[in-house]
Fold each of these.
Amino acid sequence: MRFLFIVPLLCSLSLAAEHVTQYVNPFIGTSNFGATHPGAQYPHGMASVAPFNVAFRAGQENKFEKDQAWNSRVYIHENKFLTGFSHVNLSGVGCPDLGSILLMPTTGALEFDAKKYGSTYHNEQASPGYYRTTLDKYQVDVELSSTLRTGISRYTFPKGQSHILLNLGLGLTNETGGMLKVVSNSEVEGFKMLGTFCYHSEDVRPVYFVAKLSKAAKTAGAWKKMPKYQGVEAEWIGYDDNYKPYKDYRQEVAGDDIGAYFQFDTNEQETITVKLGISYVSIKNARQNLNAEQPGFAFEQTKDKAQQQWQKLLSRVQVKGQPTKKTIFYSALYHSLIHPNIIQDINGDYPLMGQPGIGNTQGKKRYSVYSLWDTNRNLHPLLSLLYPEIQSEMVNSMVAMAKESGWLPKWELLGMETQVMVGDPATVVIADSYLRGIQDFDVIAAYDYAKKAALTLDNNPLRPENKQYTQLGYVPVDDEGKWDGSVSTSLEYYIADWNLAQLAKALDRPQDHQRFLQRAKNYQKLFDSKTGMLRPKYANGQWFSPYDPQLGRNFEPAPGYIEGNAWNYRFYVPHDIPGLINSLGGDQNFIKQLTQTFTTDNFDMANEPDITYPFLFNYVKGEEWRSQQKINQLISTHYHNSPEGIPGNDDAGTLSAWLVFSMMGLYPVSPGDMNYALVTPSFDEISIQLNQAYYAGRTLTLKTQQPPQQAPYIDKMHLNKRELSDYFINHQQLVSGGELIFTLTSKVKK
Amino acid sequence: MRFLFIVPLLCSLSLAAEHVTQYVNPFIGTSNFGATHPGAQYPHGMASVAPFNVAFRAGQENKFEKDQAWNSRVYIHENKFLTGFSHVNLSGVGCPDLGSILLMPTTGALEFDAKKYGSTYHNEQASPGYYRTTLDKYQVDVELSSTLRTGISRYTFPKGQSHILLNLGLGLTNETGGMLKVVSNSEVEGFKMLGTFCYHSEDVRPVYFVAKLSKAAKTAGAWKKMPKYQGVEAEWIGYDDNYKPYKDYRQEVAGDDIGAYFQFDTNEQETITVKLGISYVSIKNARQNLNAEQPGFAFEQTKDKAQQQWQKLLSRVQVKGQPTKKTIFYSALYHSLIHPNIIQDINGDYPLMGQPGIGNTQGKKRYSVYSLWDTNRNLHPLLSLLYPEIQSEMVNSMVAMAKESGWLPKWELLGMETQVMVGDPATVVIADSYLRGIQDFDVIAAYDYAKKAALTLDNNPLRPENKQYTQLGYVPVDDEGKWDGSVSTSLEYYIADWNLAQLAKALDRPQDHQRFLQRAKNYQKLFDSKTGMLRPKYANGQWFSPYDPQLGRNFEPAPGYIEGNAWNYRFYVPHDIPGLINSLGGDQNFIKQLTQTFTTDNFDMANEPDITYPFLFNYVKGEEWRSQQKINQLISTHYHNSPEGIPGNDDAGTLSAWLVFSMMGLYPVSPGDMNYALVTPSFDEISIQLNQAYYAGRTLTLKTQQPPQQAPYIDKMHLNKRELSDYFINHQQLVSGGELIFTLTSKVKK
């Protein structure tokens, strides 16, 4: 009898703690420009270990070589020539940087030229916090795992002469230069310079590291690529345009292209483990991080711990449904939990924002890698809903950055403001988070910095051309640069102003509220009733002509627009869709134009400006089925359990966050607007464990009464048994917990 | 009456302490490949500050550009385009290295490219410990001085925008790479990699530095030369093959070509002083050195102290005679007191020899830059005679090197054995020093290391091919490399063996004495009675044929010989000239052949193998006048008070030491042989203050009874009133002090 009791108990436990990490496929997004990597990754880790297969052999083993085209990827699934495993990596970012500090095991003759020591590979496997492969050329098994600030690599060598190489010359970043010091036959320390983000940034930042090996090498040394000498010097010089070894050398080596090597006589199947800790503050801190997070060489424990941490976060949402859907869902949630990543050392040290020097978090966390033009739209709202304690830390970091640099971040990378993309997205994130209930930050300071950005007319790094924007109500097209579209910029400023207005209201500042609300309505000044587009306009009030709303579709420069064309931006006033509908002549024309966006191939699922559009049908009564249908269609068309399973650059998790929301059947219509648009969930049941430190509810459960694959349309919805009157639900309602029941139907309900 | 007493007293004091530094012309040797520099130099200083004018503008302002030919010079008098002031420099060395850490003041627009910011200059002045010039392009006055381990630069700027640049990318060394960190608006620290000595060495060594400015800059930052990008990347990258600024950046920068800058608004005639300390151990030590030796920015005091230190050393020899002769004499003595230089930090730290790690001298000195193939011949014997306490420190350093690395040095550079040139010269220096009376070192250890070099047959880094040498009695020509002449090498080994034999005798080891004496006589196996040459021989005993004794005259590879031809080496058995005379068939043929060496232009005053030859006439009774004549002739032909005043590479002071000895009328016939050959002194009186810690005498005075320019030949000589019976004098006699009187005659005395 007792036995019978135990079985269901175990089952129930097992259900509650289903190992959802099994559903994560880290290869999703590694093709089709997704720019994710399949390497060992800890949630929000500042270190990660990724296979690096984008260098050399262009058009041969490597279809996409990093220097042949714009490339922001350390790993591309189609590529086959691997030249190491990088320890600092960006995920889903559209500009090249990081992808540096490469370890590589080799065998046979010692070779320093990655062109020559690179190898094809097979038998890849990846799961959260773990990656493995076998190098064809060397028959070395490589296994990787990581913690927040360290990577660990376990190499299983064949019998013979074996090497472990550390290459600081090769990497994704276009910034050159590094320094290293072989401390002993089992340790190396140094730094690699990162930066030159998007090719043009002048800001740079060293990443410091310490690597320790589980076995002392027979010999160890360094190398450096010597330059190309000319004329007679080329005859005399020992290493001309070639790699020079520094055997048994134990002082610093610095240069553009340097490395360290460790040589071993290995036995058959001998494993050697390397652990590598990083810091953005100092070598000393990198060593402290390594000693704290990786005291031994416990590969399995590191792997288990990473997996547990992922399980802990991912299982905050439990879903029931088709395994493949679970895979794309949890993989997307996984990709939503990589950036922003922590940057403070174990002792709290971190590089100050926008100024020299080191700060200390005093026990708190400091985040970095804010791709805010992307992530303000849905990633931060998703974190706010599912992980408000993390979103709080991120907002706190943003406010700290403003206190250090004088300005909120826009595209912050390792404490550097890279000024990539347009708008004032930090204001949006701060207002949205506060309104959602994340209020444990210095909101007065945050508000003041946001207001500073909104009101500083000249020399405003966050809002270029804010003077004209303020005076004219829009950014004029007159002196527009190649990549700062006047319409796009204006639209982002309207959203920021609208969010600022909402925050002003919440903070009981009615004058500010009115003022910024008014500014946010100025989008109407760019509305061209003739074309129905938000159209570039000169300072003198004349429309930009000749005007082609299609221009910009393929990322080519288009006056007025950045990363998109007029169609991609035409509904981009998410804070005032009813107003836009009115401008467009009412519901029917709006639905017509919105539908046309999709039918004329003017919708781009791979970029941010228009990703809210499929939900906009919800704004017109009786047309909500179109959103349900469109979302279903977009998910099945663009998201797959395969390397090409993300439509384009994941954009630091933004396209993944879109999927997570969409599959849960809800989507934040606009940051700062607490309504989610509702569509058909992809699962039979979705259970969200709410954080009661922030939210009243304990659990929110979304259930479909019918299998969604058979009944894709919503018939009706009940929240805690009360039927919903429309296809929106308020954030406060949701986080109060309870059950949202979707009654589905196979037929369109008009 | 009292007044009359005072005058002669002052005169006498004034005579005793004549400011002999006024006779030093640091420009001597800066043309004609002398390879000395006119910069600010402290005696045996490890830092110095030299104008650097060998980069760019080849064939235009710069007649000899550093990359257009083999170049070992930081400064060439004919050149006119200056690109900075280097803080580590070699003097009179034939291979390029050091010449790095360049400071440069500029004005106007900030420019990082030395090709562009370089300037012509005028109004150069130089004296021991001081150099000045005015930069034409900027109208900036530059004044330089230095201590043992620091340099100090005083710049006087015009009114306007002014800059101080620190360039680690430019320099004489062919080793690339460095690191720097702008610590504040008035301080920068870092290191520059040195090495690749003679183009081919694989050994490298960082030199660390800290520089502090007397005034905080308005702005300060770093720069780096970005590489040449290819294809589409070249379009996107911000700095393609160009200098990228890192404004207000305060972390480390590393790379092949980097620098730091400090910007000022200067007033008319505003002076800014920069002090820069170096260390071969660490940045921390460089800072300690700087703080200890240069606590303020006291330019004048630094200059005075350097001059006083030079005065202290140079005045150990006081001469009376023509001012021009005094100038070439004291300039030569000055050039004899630069290398070897100290390398230990103020706290005693220094880089260990031939192994990683740091040693500490425990209050003693550690020397470096031993060009022993050159300096064993005369520089060390000169130091032994004039500065035995310094020679003792140098020998102690050599023994310490052997204890650290297992081998005595050959061509030691900054703790690296560069293996340049041939032979086993350290054995020679040690035996010679000991025999001269410098015995306060671990002679047993030194002897053991010398013996180890003599007897280790295989894998002998000091004596390659020692096995064949030992077995055959000579190094066979069979498998000779391009630059390791079998005859030259054998001859060096014979001298080393002979010196080792002398030391064995002194240490009462009769068996060793006999053994090494025998080996030293094996030169006869290379004596070819047919040609009268020391000729390359195969292992099977056959002479190398066809044989051209002229080959090698212009430094082209010549089988058997290095840096010379058969003629240059034909008398190169200084330890057994009587034996060689015998082999050559007696006195008359010897004199004939020796004379022919000079008449057929087969004597090279600019290189070491044959520089003893003009003294060899002394070995034949009645022919000594030829040495007197020849030395007079060589001095007046090759040594001048002008930039071309040294016949060729000074070779770390060797050609200068030749001049010092020759002008004093004595020359050590062979290291290990305590006899000096006597020739006509160049002065009326030479007074040497002997170091009584080593020598019995207090003063040695050499006087010519007649003015040597009018009576160039020796009639007779009296040492302490006893007439000498031949034209040699023993070291022990000399250092017992007293007077050596030369009675001169205008006629040849046969």
Amino acid sequence: MAAFEHKYDQNFTQHVIDTCGPKTSPRMKTIFSSLARHIHDFAREVDLTPEEWLAGVDFLNQTGKLWAESDGKRNEMHRLCDIVGLESLVTEIANYVQTEDPNYIPTSSAILGPFWSPNAPWRELGDSIIESPHDGYITYMHGIIRDLATQKPIPNVTFDIWQASSNGKYDFQDPENQVDNNLRGKFKTDENGEYRLYCLRPTAYSLPRDGPAWDILKALDRHSMRPAHIHLRITHDEYKPVITQIYPKDDPWLETDTVFAVKDDLVCDFKPLKSLPSNMPPHERHGGEAVRELELDITLAPKSMLQPLKEPITDRSA
Amino acid sequence: MAAFEHKYDQNFTQHVIDTCGPKTSPRMKTIFSSLARHIHDFAREVDLTPEEWLAGVDFLNQTGKLWAESDGKRNEMHRLCDIVGLESLVTEIANYVQTEDPNYIPTSSAILGPFWSPNAPWRELGDSIIESPHDGYITYMHGIIRDLATQKPIPNVTFDIWQASSNGKYDFQDPENQVDNNLRGKFKTDENGEYRLYCLRPTAYSLPRDGPAWDILKALDRHSMRPAHIHLRITHDEYKPVITQIYPKDDPWLETDTVFAVKDDLVCDFKPLKSLPSNMPPHERHGGEAVRELELDITLAPKSMLQPLKEPITDRSA
């Protein structure tokens, strides 16, 4: 990186930063300064040509055009950030919790993605979230949610779960085959901090292969696959939320997830189900349809361990 | 910058880069690797929040939407690059010519901007480019175009000039007051490498104050002014083209040009005109209307001094 330092005008970047006036908010100044330095260093490092820069301008314009033409439904700009790892990175940053013992950390977060619904129905412990036909493996999923500091179970945690069906589509994308809220549900942990429910062993799927994100993936000789995953959003007033995804350990796309959302502690073992607990009441047994079992404990950090929130950048409407 | 290095996953960025497949072109790999590193370092350096990142996604979507809704006429994405100095920087990079003596360099380049026209008329030496009424100072502009290596004058150079009128608008933007090709023209240097013509002393103007670029300028507490300038595009088959802008030395916006296109050697002295050359023929005197004089010599680098061209990134249609 030292090679370019003396080649081009050494004062240029600082000059751009120094044009910010005294009324810039400190956070805006911090963000703009860092962004300008990195964009300039990038351009100098690769000797970016005017044609390459203009190709980038055109590419971002075309990407915004797709969003405008779909009335905001298709957000390829968001997807571009995902395939370069940016959403995964800001998720890691937001969920960073400093602990003295590196083995003593909360369950990792992973990107929320575009398919969460605020309208998922409340369900009872032991219910199934499966409401429409599928070709998947029904899975008995259960576990304990614990406090990072005390390791004690936490009652009354909201456990919000959503997943694609065995055809790789969410209910939103597949109204012909799935009823609304198929494979979605919210549960509360019981007095022992336990949740239990039935879901599907998840299925891998591809990002859309007809837009700017796919153009970039092709140019990088990359695939468009996400590993099979189940989304979780685990919340309690006294704890830092965990928004995450879990993955079957034998999925072939774990290492190269096209949005880089896999973390080691989120890889799970969907085992063949030997038997349901002998004390399970009949209405939770669902006729013994389950063929897999996933036991997954979750650790939440108390809010007292949070990083301070950033001040807002600026009011853009001002 | 060292503070974040051990805070977040140290392998993440290299992992994102390593997903590029073997069929990525070397240039694409170079650009993607550098861009991913700088975007990630930026996010870690400022602890970018998910809300800030999403505000950025929305901002770029809105910017692309303006372009789509104007059928490509309003390119705010390009303008955003200008106000962070990126177009000026890629122009500097593209026009970098290494010479052993730092005082021995070609005339600096500056951004082309959106107002160049391929259809400007050819004019004769000594003609005026002024065709419509104005409130400006008519200027007799002349000079010699020289070879950087030999310092000899170059005959038959194309000298393409365009500028806004005294109201700060180009002919495209002002059809009520200006005829087509007002304040535009192409000239050829004579056997002594000389050009001469009449133009206006230029007038400062503001970028549009109703879009994303203005939103950013407000948030940075910056103004939207460009210093007064005249555009030049100087070409000859055997020389590296010089696309540039020149500025009157007493303009108040030179130091803080909102697109950062001012270079020291482009700042000129528009002097009061004492007299036109005594041997100038009557048809070049235009009734003695000129009140200012600008003498500006230009130096062109022979193409043998060029940097090698980059290979293309990729064929996006492939």
